[in-house]
Design a protein that fits this description.
The chain is an all-beta fold. The protein is about 0% helix and about 45% strand. The protein is built from no helices and eleven strands. β5 and β6 form a beta hairpin.
Length: about 130
């Protein structure tokens, strides 16, 4: 069983930045496609961004393009989410997700929650206006 542990959430003013981290408890991390989802109060879980197992391909929600950047360090079993120019609408619990079926996954498939086998417990991000 793979465990994913997120950190880095918090309270920030609009226009500020945060960097989320997610550490995976697996020696096969480099084989996993990774993603970040978020869920705001009263709303469904929403795809934010994904990165392929190799790091060569990223897929982003339109509203975060140019503001959020996903990256990974396979030597540290860690995926990151750098969030800049935060707005109140970014307020949500952010979840890290991992897929062991990443080979051949298309960008469209990477946006679907059911493609992911493992989920973290979530970290709260609150953006004040």
């Amino acid at each position: 069983q793979v465990q994913l542990v997120e950190s880095g959430g918090g309270l920030v003013q609009a226009g500020g930045s945060l960097r989320l981290s997610c550490v995976a408890s697996t020696n096969s991390f480099s084989n996993y496609g990774m993603a970040w989802f978020r869920q705001a109060p009263g709303k469904d879980r929403e795809f934010v961004t994904a990165i392929s197992w190799s790091g060569a391909t990223t897929t982003n929600l339109a509203s975060v393009k140019g503001r959020f950047t996903i990256s990974r360090d396979n030597a540290k079993n860690t995926v990151y989410l750098q969030m800049n120019s935060l707005i109140p609408e970014d307020t949500a619990v952010y979840y890290c997700a991992g897929s062991s079926r990443a080979f051949g996954m298309t960008p469209a498939q990477s946006m679907a929650p059911n493609r992911y086998d493992y989920w973290g417990q979530g970290t709260q991000v609150t953006v004040s206006s």
